[in-house]
């Protein structure tokens, strides 16, 4: 569990629980230890300060209405103890009820001051932003083959006198077969990823970038704490 997510939840004005409904259905709609822990943590948070909770059932477009309703009912019943103020069955792909969800958030959340200057795009270091740009390109180009099996790490950053920068990044996959997918035939895919990522990083940094991508197999990257520490996350595997 990522501790920082729960720290944010404890400080938030609202808690939104989003569920992958088809995945829950595929697991025979069984409530497991993770669901128990989520409810327990939210209950503990609410004891300190009451806040609204909403339930979001996502990917209903991948299910029949009957199956979606059945899965939603199981989750709604289990989380009824945290007293959700609303529930939405949405499809981010088709847009089902997405506007209703936005309206709920806009109407419920209190107004507050800007926490950062309006011209500040991010508080992340440039190295992390560059890695995130490349990860985005991998996801966009390979989302069917590698939905969530890829991580990107900026391993070297060298500033040149002419103002340009050399960036070396490692793309981690979990299996050898996935490495071939990222590389593509004769390296065509990795080249396309490099071009797309470099263009966006150059726009982000406002200078010329020399980007070098390397693909490595690391089956346990999702369970390694060092993959989360640069983001300020304390991952308790």
Automatic annotation (TrEMBL):
One of its GO terms (molecular function) is rRNA binding. Pfam families: KH_2. It comes from Rhodosorus marinus. One of its GO terms (biological process) is ribosomal small subunit assembly. Residues 142-219 form the KH type-2 domain. Keywords: GTP-binding, Nucleotide-binding, RNA-binding. Belongs to the TRAFAC class TrmE-Era-EngA-EngB-Septin-like GTPase superfamily. Era GTPase family. It comes from the Eukaryota. This is KH type-2 domain-containing protein. Gene3D superfamilies: 3.30.300.20, P-loop containing nucleotide triphosphate hydrolases (3.40.50.300). The lineage of its organism: Eukaryota, Rhodophyta, Stylonematophyceae, Stylonematales, Stylonemataceae. InterPro entries: GTPase_Era-like, KH_dom-like_a/b, KH_dom_type_2, KH_sf_prok-type, P-loop_NTPase.
């Amino acid at each position: 569990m990522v501790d920082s997510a729960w720290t944010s939840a404890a400080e938030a004005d609202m808690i939104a629980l989003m569920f992958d409904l088809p995945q829950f259905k595929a697991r025979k709609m069984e409530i497991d230890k993770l669901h128990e822990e989520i409810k327990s943590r939210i209950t503990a948070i609410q004891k300190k300060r009451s806040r609204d909770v909403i339930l979001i059932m996502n990917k209903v477009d991948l299910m029949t209405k009957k199956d979606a309703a059945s899965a939603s009912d199981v989750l709604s019943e289990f989380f009824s103890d945290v007293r959700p103020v609303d529930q939405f069955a949405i499809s981010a792909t088709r847009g089902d009820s997405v506007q209703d969800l936005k309206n709920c958030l806009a109407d419920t959340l209190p107004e507050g001051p800007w926490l950062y200057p309006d011209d500040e795009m991010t508080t992340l270091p440039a190295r992390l932003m560059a890695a995130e740009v490349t990860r985005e390109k991998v996801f966009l180009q390979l989302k069917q083959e590698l939905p969530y099996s890829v991580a990107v790490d900026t391993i070297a950053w060298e500033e040149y006198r002419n103002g340009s920068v050399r960036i070396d990044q490692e793309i981690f996959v979990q299996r050898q077969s996935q490495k071939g997918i990222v590389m593509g035939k004769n390296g065509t895919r990795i080249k396309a990823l490099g071009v797309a990522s470099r263009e966006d990083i150059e726009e982000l940094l406002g200078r010329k970038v020399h980007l070098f991508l390397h693909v490595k197999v690391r089956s346990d990257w999702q369970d390694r704490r060092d993959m989360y520490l640069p983001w300020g996350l304390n991952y308790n595997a």
